[in-house]
Amino acid sequence: MYFLIGLLAFLAGIFYLIIPFVLLSKINGLLERIQDLENQLKEKGPSTFPETQIEKKKPPIKEEKPILVKETIPETKKEVPSSKPVAKTPKPAAVVPPTIIKQEPQPLAKKSEAWEKFEKQIANNWTGILGTIILVMGVGFLGIYAALNMSPFFRFLMVLGIGVGLFVVSILLVKKEFWVQIGYWIRSGSGAIILFSCIAAVSVPGMKWIESEFYALILVIAGILVNLGLAWQTSQQKFASLHIVLSLISLAILPLSTLIFFLAVGVSAFSVLLSYRTKWEFHLIQTAISFLILNFLYKGHFSEQLHVLNSPHSRTWGILGTLVVGIPSILAHYRKVYSSASIQRLPFITHLIIWAGIGLGLSVYSTGSKWNPPVLITVSIGLFFWARTAREKLNIRWLYLTDTLVSLALASIGIILLSRWEVDIFLINVYVSLLFSIFFVVSSEEKENLLKNIGAVLLHLSWVQYIILLIVKYFGGLDLGAWPIVITTIVMILLTFLIQFYDEIRNKESSTASDDIYGVGGDDRISPAGIFSGLLASVICFQLFDWKHSELYLPAFGIILLAIRQNRNWNGLGVGIFFFVAALHFEVIYRIYSLERWEVLLRDLPTIAFCFLMIPLSKVKLGADKIRYFSSPGAILLSLHIVLLAYWTTQSLSAFLPGILWLLLSLVYLETKNFFSEREKEWENTWKSSINSAGPVWQFFALVFVGLFLGAHILVHLQSELYVGIFKIRFLIQALAIGVFIYWAKSPNPKKEIPNYWNSLLPLFWELTAIFITAIIALEIPNTWLPVAWIVWAFFLNQISLKTSLEISRFRFYSLCFYWYSCIHVAFISSSALTPSEYWANQEWLGGLIGIVLQIAYLVRFQLLPPFQGVEAEGYPGKISKLSERLDQKSDYIIFYPLFAAGAFFLFWSFDSSLLTLLWMVEVFIVFLMGLILKKEHFRYVSLVAMIVCLLRLIFWDLSQSSTITRALVFLGVGGILILMNTLYGKFGNKEKTDAP
C-alpha cells in the first residue's frame, strides 16, 4: 500500500516537473524563431524606396497604418488621324502612387543586453540544473519515506527503478524534436539517481543491503560508470557538467571515507578528460571549483580521522588526488586548438582558476615538510621550461605568459619556505631578489616586455621589502650592525650593480634604462637599480652607526661608489648616491657633535675629502666625444662643510673669529672663481673643467660668506666695546671689511649678454664699502663733531665720484644725501643738545657752526660742478644715476633750502630769543641777495614770505617780550635791512625786468 502511494506521489512530482520544462521549451523556441527573423531582416538588401532605407536605420518601432493621399493628374488627349470616325474612349487619368505620410511612432525602450544574457542563462541552463537537483532530492525524500515500510533491498530497487524509468522516458523524449531539451535534462537526472541508489546501497543506513566490500565496490563503480557514460554520450558541456556536478554532490552527501574520495577523484579526472574533446572552458572551471570544494570537505577527514585510514600518511592521499585532477586540467590547454598570439580571456581565466585550485588544494593537505622547498623549486624550473613549448611549438602566447608567471610564483614560495631549513630571513630576501634578477634578465633576453616589466617591478619591490624588513627588525631590537646582516646588504648592492651592468652591456643603444619601466629617468638612462644602490648604501651607514670610527672609513666606501659610477657611467647610481651622502653626513654630525674643535676637524676630514672628490668624479658621457661634469652637488657639500667648520672650530676661541674667517673665505672663493674662469677654455674636456663647472657654486658661496659675515657683524661685532690697544675691535674688523669690500668691488666683472645676479650684485660692494665707512663715522666720532664728519664725508663722496675712473658716479647722489643729513643734524641734533662741559671745544653749537660753514662751502662747490652725467645704465646703479640726473635739474631747491632751514634752526636753538628776529632778518637778507645775484625769483619770493614772518614776530613778540634797549637795537637792525633790501631791489630788480626778453 505504501509503495503504491509513494509511486503515485513520484508520478505526480514528475508531471509537475515536466510541465514547467514544456512551457520553458516553448518559450525558448519562440525566442529562437524571433531571433532568426530579426537576423533575416538584417541580412536583406536595401529597399528601392528611400523612405524604407531611412526606416531600416531606425530602431524597431510599432507598425502603424499610413495615411494615403490619392492624387490624379489629367492627361491631354491626342488626335489620331483617320478616315473613319473612331469612337474615342477616354483614357483614365494617370494614377500617381499615393504619397505616404508616416506618423513618427514613439520608439520602444530597448531591453538591456546584460539582462537578456542573464535571462537566457537562467532560462536555458539553470532551470534545468536546479530542476534536476530538486528531482534527485525528491527521490531521496521518497526513499526516506519508503524506508520506514520497506526492506533495504526493495528500497534500493525502488530508487534504481525510478532512475531506469527516467532514463527510458528520456530516450523516448529525445526522439521528438520538441522534447529533445527535456529529454536531456531527464537523462541527466536519471544518471544521478542511479548513482545515488548504488552508493546508498553500500553506505547509507536504511538502504545498505550489501555487506561485502568487494560487491559494494563493484556496485558503486557500476553506478559511476553509468553516470560517466551518460556524460560521455552528451555533446553539450552544460549536460556533461551537470552529470559531473550531480555525481560529486551525490558523493559529497555520503559519509566521508577514503573510498568515496578516490571515487570523486576518478569522477573529476574523467570530467577533465571530457574537456579534451573540445574547448569546454566552463566545464573545466566547474570541475576545478567542485573538486576544490570537495578538498575542503575532506580536509577534516584526512587530518582528524586518522583512525579510519589507519595510516600516518593520510594527507598524502589528498595531495595525490589533487595532482591527479590538477595536472590533466593544466595540460588541457596545451593543445593546438588554443593557438593564438593574443590573450584569450576565458581560457586565461580558466587556467588561473585551475592553478588557484591546485594551490589551495595542496595547501589544504600541507604536511609542513622541510622537503617542500626543493620540490617546489624543482617543479617551478620544470614548469618554466615546459611553458616555452606553449610559445615555440603551440603558439599559445597567453599560456606561455601565465605558466611562466606561475613558475616564478612557485619558485618564490619555495625560497620563502626555506625558513624550514632555518635559513636566515635576510638571506631568504637575498635569494628572492636573486630569483627576480634572473627572471628579469631572462625575460629581457627573450624580448618579452610584459614579463620583463613584471620582473622589474618584483625586483624593485624585493629591495623595498628588504629595507622595510631592516627597519622593522631595528625597532624590534635586533642589532643590524652584525657582520652577517651587513654582508647581506652588500650582496644586495651587488645585485643592483648586476642589473646596471646588464643594462650597460645589452641595452646601451637605448635611450632609457632597461629596468626603468616607470619613465622616471626619461632619456637620461637613470636606472632605478642605481637609485636602490644608493638607498642600500645609505642603509649600510645606519647599520654601521655603532661601529667605532665608522665615520672615517665610510667616506672611502662612498669614494668607491663614485669611481664605479664614473667608470661605468651609471646615472642611476649618480642619483642614488645622494641618499648615501645624506646618511653619511647624518652619521658624521652625530659622531662629532660633542667632540672638541680639533677632533671635530680630524673626524670630518675624510668626509671633506669625499665631498671634494665628488667634483672630479662627476663626469657624465653625453655622447661619443662629449662629456659633462655635474660637480655642483660636490661643491655645495664641500662649501657647507667649510662654513660649519669655520664656525665650529673657532667659536670656542673667540666670538669674533667666525665672522672674520667667513670674510676672508669670501675672498678665497672669489679668487677661486676668477682663477678657474680665466682657464675655462684651456681646461676644457679635462678633469679640471669639473672645478670650473662648479663656478656658479663658488660665486654663490662667496656671497654667502659675505652674508654670514654681515650677520655676525650685526649680531656680535657691533655689540662689543672691547679694545685692542687704542682701537676698538669692531673698528679694526670694519677697517678689514672695507678693504675686502673694495677688493670685491674692483674684481673683474665679465659682461654677458644676459645679466645674472653676479653682475647685478658685484657693483653694490661700493655701496657696502660706503655703508661700513658710514658706520665707523657714526660709532667712532663724538656726537659734537658728527655734522662736520657728515659734510666732510659728503665732500669725499662727491670728489671720488668725479675723479675716479670707476663706474661710481652715483656716489654724487650719496654725497647729496649726507649733505642733507648734515643739515638735519645741525638743525635738530647739534643745536638742540645741551652740553654741561665748560670747555668751548665740547659745545654742540661749535660743531654745528663749523658744519654750516662747510655746508656753505659744499653749496658753492656743488654750484661750480658741471651737470651730472651718470655712466651706470643697468640695475640699481642705473636707477640711482637716473635719479641723480633728475635732482641735478633742481639743484637750487635741493641745495639752498636745506642749508637755509638748517641755519634758521641753528639760530633758533643757539641764540637768545630777543635777538632771534634780527638774526633771522639777516638770513632773509642773504636769501634775498642770493635771488638777486643768481637771478632766481623763487629766492626773492621765499625771502619776502620769511620777511613777513619776521615782521609779525617783531610786532607780536619783540614789542611785548624784549627790553627797551634790545627792542631798539632789533628795530634799528630790521629797519636798516628792509631799507637796504628796498634799495637793492629798486636798483637791480627793475633792471632784471628790463633786461628780460
Task: Report on the architecture of this protein.
It is a single chain. The protein has 997 residues and is mostly helical. Helices cover 71% and strands 3% of the residues. The chain has a two-stranded antiparallel sheet. A two-stranded antiparallel ribbon has the order 3-4. A hairpin with a 5-residue loop joins strand 3 and strand 4 (627-629). Helix 29 packs parallel to helix 31 (844-864). It is elongated, with a radius of gyration of 55 Å. 34% of the residues are buried. The model is unreliable at 1-22, 46-111, 118-124, 305-310 and 993-997 (pLDDT under 50).
How are the secondary structure elements laid out?
Layout: H1 2-43, H2 50-57, E1 67-73, E2 94-101, H3 113-147, H4 152-174, H5 180-203, H6 213-233, H7 237-252, H8 258-275, H9 281-304, H10 306-309, H11 314-331, H12 345-364, H13 372-392, H14 397-416, H15 425-445, H16 449-475, H17 483-506, H18 528-543, H19 550-568, H20 571-592, H21 597-613, E3 619-621, E4 627-629, H22 632-648, H23 657-678, H24 689-693, H25 695-715, E5 723-724, E6 727-728, H26 729-745, H27 757-761, H28 765-780, H29 786-803, H30 811-830, H31 844-864, H32 875-888, H33 891-910, H34 916-934, H35 937-961, H36 964-995
Antiparallel strand pairs: 1-2, 3-4, 5-6
Helix pairs in contact: 1-3, 3-4, 3-5, 4-5, 5-6, 5-7, 6-7, 6-8, 7-8, 7-9, 8-9, 8-11, 9-11, 9-12, 11-12, 12-14, 13-14, 14-15, 15-16, 15-17, 16-18, 17-18, 18-20, 19-20, 19-21, 20-21, 21-22, 22-23, 22-25, 23-25, 23-26, 26-28, 29-30, 29-31, 30-31, 30-33, 31-33, 33-34, 34-35, 34-36
